[in-house]
Model the fold of this input.
Amino acid sequence: MSGRLLRLACTTAVAAQAVLAPVPAAAAPDPQRSVAGLLTDLQQLYRRTEQATETYNATTEQLKRQRAEVARLDGELADARLVLRDSRTEAGRLARQQYQGSGGLGPYVRVLLAPDPQHALDEGHVLAELARERARTVARLTAAEQRKDALARAARKALDAQLGLAARQKRQRDDVRGKLADVERLLAGLTPAQLAAVARLEQQGVAAAQQRLTTAGALPADRAAATPAGDRAVRYAMDQVGKPYQWGAQGPDAYDCSGLTSQAWSHAGTPIPRTSQEQWNRLGRVPLNRLRPGDLVVYFPEATHVAMYVGGGKVVQAPRPGEKVTVSPVASYPVLGAVRPGTAGTVGTHRDGPVRLR
Done:
């Protein structure tokens, strides 16, 4: 944790993720402002930024699924139009045949006047089959018309939903950018001495929280063996150490917190949800003291941050803007609980709710 804030102050362009316009430096903080107060402000800003990021990620996943649904419906609509065209062609052929045979005696009269009763009976069967074929053709035409109309309505509705999601995604993207700008302004107003003091206080808080977890027996006493898939996920995540955090990123050059965990497990052959909230809600939960490498530790009451347990009381994570993928203590942030990919549903929650670490 040491040096995080100093690195952030030296890399303002990184904090904006290359999408923010330059912002004026904030006024210097009140000299009487406590270091603890500054740290609290920064932590709150980072937390709000990560909440906005995960909301943006969730909408991005919805938009991706909706685009696939629009493409599927468009394909089905194109097929339905071809079927309708063929049905109309067949109906037209039957109509022409009926029109061309309308002169002279009707087909049923010709049957009645036939000199050979057996021939008349045979011809009657033929006429009956023709009538049934015409009925089937009309039924196919009607069904094709109805399917085409239904698919056209569904396609329009799906496209409207896609456009709505795209607009929501843009608003959420702007929200993330605004919150990153707030972080940048606060950092720009801190002196080097304040930055160093805030970094020290943050490191002390994490060390104390980690000690409390260890003393309380909340972490595994021994390093449990990872499953083959868990081992692959950990190795993938560890290979990303040193790559930058970038909100909304899923690699290979940069990651946000859930982008790292979802990609690691995808490469291990076990796809999991994209966002930290969905990982918390849809994966089976495990007690902290039964963690094994590859399990995911979820943070904050809203489940807005996630990291991967690697053993020894450590996690690998993409921490926040301005930082890089790193190995940290489990207690880097307030722990909500842990989940295990490869299991579904909730198999238990932390007895007392979120673990308040600092």
